[in-house]
Amino acid sequence: MGLMTGKRGIIVGLANNKSIAWGIAQQLHEAGAEIAYTYLNEALEKRVRPLATSLGAKIILPCDVQDEAQQTAVFAELEKQWGKIDFVVHAVAFANREDLKNPFSQTSREGFQLALDVSAYSLVSMTRAALPIMNEGGSIVTMSYLGAMRAIPGYNIMGVAKAALEASVRYLAAELGPQKIRVNAISAGPIKTLAASGVGNFNEKLRVMEARSPLKRTITQEEVGKASVYLLSDLASGVTGEIHYVDGGFSIAEG
Ligand code: NAD
C-alpha cells in the first residue's frame, strides 16, 4: 500500500522528461496514484503520450488553460471515466521571452495579461472546473518560485504572476477549506527545464543556489515530486494555504 493508493487525479503541465511535472508524476505513480495527464498541443503530445503511457496512464487529453471549453471538457471526461477525483497538480506557466529579457518597466499590457492568465488565473479556472468532481479530502498543488516574494533579476513578469498565484492559493484555500479541499503551492528552487530556459540569467541562479543555499546544491524534480506526494496525500491533511519551499533552504538563508 502506497501513500496514494486508491487516489486518482490529474497532472497539468507535463511537457517532457525534464518537466517538474515528470518528477511529480513518477513519485505519485510510485506512491500508488492513478493519474490522468494533459498536453498543451500536438507537438507536445508526441512527448507527453509515451511518458504518461510508460506509467500506465489511460487518460491523456489536450488542454490549453487559456481555452475554458477545453478545460471543462477535461474534467467532464474525468467524471465520465472515474466519477470523482482526489487531486489536481497545476504545473503551468508562460511569459513572452522579451518580457523576461527587457527591463520590467517595459512589460507590455498584452505580455502582462498573458503571463497572469496562463500562470495564475489558470489555477482559479482549473479549480472551478475540478470542484464538482473533487472528493472530500481532495488536494490541489501548484508550482511557485521565490520571485513571487523578491525582485529576482530576470524573473520580471513571472514574479508578478507567481505573487498572484500564491495569493490565489490562499484565497482558494480559505474558500474551499469548509468543503475539506486543500490548496497549496510548492516554491521550488531553480531546475533546468523548458520553461526555465526562457528565464534570464538562469545558469547564474543555479550557481548562486549551489554556493549559498544551506544544502549547497540545487534541488531535483524528484524532490519536488516527493513534496507533492506529501501535500497531495493524507499526511498533509492539516495543511492548506501554504507556500511550501523546496529550495534547499535558500529562501531562509538569503537575507
Ligand atoms: P516545463 O516547461 O516543463 O513546464 C511548463 C508547462 O506549462 C509545460 O508543460 C507547458 O506545456 C505548460 N503550458 C504553458 N502554457 C500553457 C497553456 N496555455 N496551457 C496549458 N499548459 C501550458 O517547465 P517547469 O519548469 O517544469 O514548469 C512547471 C511549473 O514549475 C511552472 O509553473 C514553473 O513556473 C514552475 N517552477 C519552475 C521552476 C524551475 O526552475 N524550473 C522553479 C520554480 C517553479
Please report the total strand number as a whole number. Answer: 7
Report mean pLDDT, rounded to a whole number.
96
User: Counting H and I runs of at least 4 residues, what is the number of helices?
Assistant: 9
Strand and helix order: EHEHEHEHHEHEHHEH
Q: Rg, please?
A: 17 Å
Ligands bound to this protein structure? nicotinamide-adenine-dinucleotide
Helicity level, as a percent range? Answer: 40-55%
Task: Report low-confidence residues grouped into runs of 5 or more.
Answer: none
The quaternary structure here is single chain
State the major sheet: 7 strands, parallel
Major sheet strand order: 3-2-1-4-5-6-7
**C-alpha geometry:** globular
Percent strand: 15-25%
Structural class, by secondary structure, is: alpha/beta
- First and last CA, distance: 42 Å
How would you summarize this macromolecular structure in one to three sentences?
The protein contains nine helices and seven strands. With 255 residues, the protein is of the alpha/beta class.
Report on the architecture of this protein.
- This protein is of the alpha/beta class and 255 residues long.
- The termini are far apart.
- The longest helix is centred in the middle third of the chain and has 22 residues, at 109-130.
- The mean pLDDT is 96.
- Strands 3-2-1-4-5-6-7 form a seven-stranded parallel β-sheet, with helices on both faces.
- Helix 1 (20-30) crosses helix 8 (221-232) and helix 5 (109-130) runs parallel beside helix 6 (156-176).
- The chain is built from nine helices and seven strands.
- It has helices spanning 20-30, 42-54, 68-82, 97-101, 109-130, 156-176, 202-212, 221-232, 250-253, and strands spanning 8-12, 34-39, 60-62, 85-90, 134-144, 182-188, 243-246.
- Strand 5 (134-144), helix 6 and strand 6 (182-188) form a beta-alpha-beta unit.
- It is 45% helix and 16% strand.
- The radius of gyration is 17 Å and the shape is globular.
- It binds nicotinamide-adenine-dinucleotide (NAD).
- Nicotinamide-adenine-dinucleotide is lined by residues 13-15, 19-21, 40, 44, 63-66, 91-94, 118, 143-145, 188, 190-191, 193-196.
